[in-house]
Structure formats: structure tokens, C-alpha cells
Amino acid sequence: MIRKFCLAALVLATAACGGGPPELGQAPNVAYVQADAMPAPVNGGEGYVYALGPMDKISVEIVGLPDMRRDITVDGQGFVSIPIAGAVSAAGLTPTELAGVIEERLRARYVRDPQALVNLVEGNSNVVTLEGQVRQPGLYPLRSETTLSQAIATAGGEDDLAKISIIILQRQVDGQEYIGLYDLQAIRYGNYADPIVYPGDTIVVDESRSRRTLDTFQGITNLLTTPLIILSRQL
């Protein structure tokens, strides 16, 4: 849930938007961030890469050893069990990286020139949360690069009562909380870029409590031309 002090700061910041970054002197625990600078997660800066996690389903094949082909589910601790190679930690690795680890294990067990192939069959660990007035709120896996509007569409789109002029995107990066306010209609009109979403993000589409808080203030009028990004400092 969005913290109330963050919401108040967001409103103050938007009201201050005129010709440059708003002043947030009244709120020392928040800071304005350049509008196009919603940071990617530390491991997401070079484009979207799927890192394996618990409950992901993968296929593993050792070239030349057809009997070793397996469809495997990563367990709750992030491990997979591979014949000959044994238990291998898969959490945080891409399928290609996991294949390399399996090959190293097989070499250590005297398999000559092993070539492992690992493919994602069903991604369940890299999820984004959609809340509020979407048709199907819940957790949705991200299997490839996905934008904010695409993520909302995955949840069936906004419902008939949604106020899409205020879309809230929350993200944790390196222990800090970033909050972005976007106008979905402005994105659809091409007024500004459709931001990429990442695993762990929370998207709130006109969530009722946030709307009631926001609507008590004035000045949220500039999201048609630029998004608003706020960094919440933990004091």
C-alpha cells in the first residue's frame, strides 16, 4: 500500500510542476527524480533478462544423452536436481548461465565435453503485482520485456470505472522506494514513453484508498505531458 506521506508529497510535487522540478522542502524524506529516470532494478539495466526462481519450470537436455532430458520445476529453495550433476542452485541464474553450471558439474564427474541446453518452459517467479481497478487483479509472470500498458492489458485492462489518469508504479531499487505517477491515456496518445516494468513492481490502477487520498488535494494536472517520479528516502 502507498504510504500516506508519499502520496502527500506526490501531490505537492505535481502542484509545484511548472517549468522545472518541484521543490519538496516540506518533505525531507522524499525527493523529485527526473521524469524519465525511473530506475531499473540493479540486474535489469541492460535490458530484460529472465532470472530463474522458485516454481519456474525448465527443460534440461544434455546433447548426446537423450535419457537425461528432463522437465524440472525449481524447488522452493531455488535448486534443481540433475542426473549425475546432482543438486544445482538455479535461483538468480538465466537459463544459459544454469546450462554452464551444469556443464561444469558434469565435467567434474568425468563426462567428456558435455553440452547442456536449458530452456524456460513456464515462468512463475518473475511476477508483477496489479492492484485496483483492473478486471483481473493479481500476480502476473513476466517472461519477456513488458511495458506498463502491456502489463495492465495482461490483467484484462482497466475496468469500466477506472480513472486511468493516475496510474501508480512502485519499485524497490537498491533498498530505496521509487514511486511513479503516469497517465495511461497520455501513454496511449504517445505523449511520453511507455515505461518498462520489472519483476517485483506493483502497479495500482485507481486503487480506491489512494484515489480518495489523492482527490483531497488539487493540482494533479500535469501527468498528460510528463510522468512524475519520486524517491522516498527511508529516514
UniProtKB/TrEMBL annotation:
PROSITE patterns: PROKAR_LIPOPROTEIN (PS51257)
Listed transmembrane segments: none
Name of this protein: Polysaccharide export protein
Keywords tagged on the record: Signal
Organism superkingdom: Bacteria
InterPro entries the UniProt entry points to: Poly_export, Poly_export_N, Soluble_ligand-bd
PANTHER family, sorted: POLYSACCHARIDE EXPORT PROTEIN GFCE-RELATED
Signal peptide: 1-18
Domain called Polysaccharide export protein N-terminal: residue spans: 48-120
Limits of the Soluble ligand binding domain: 127-175
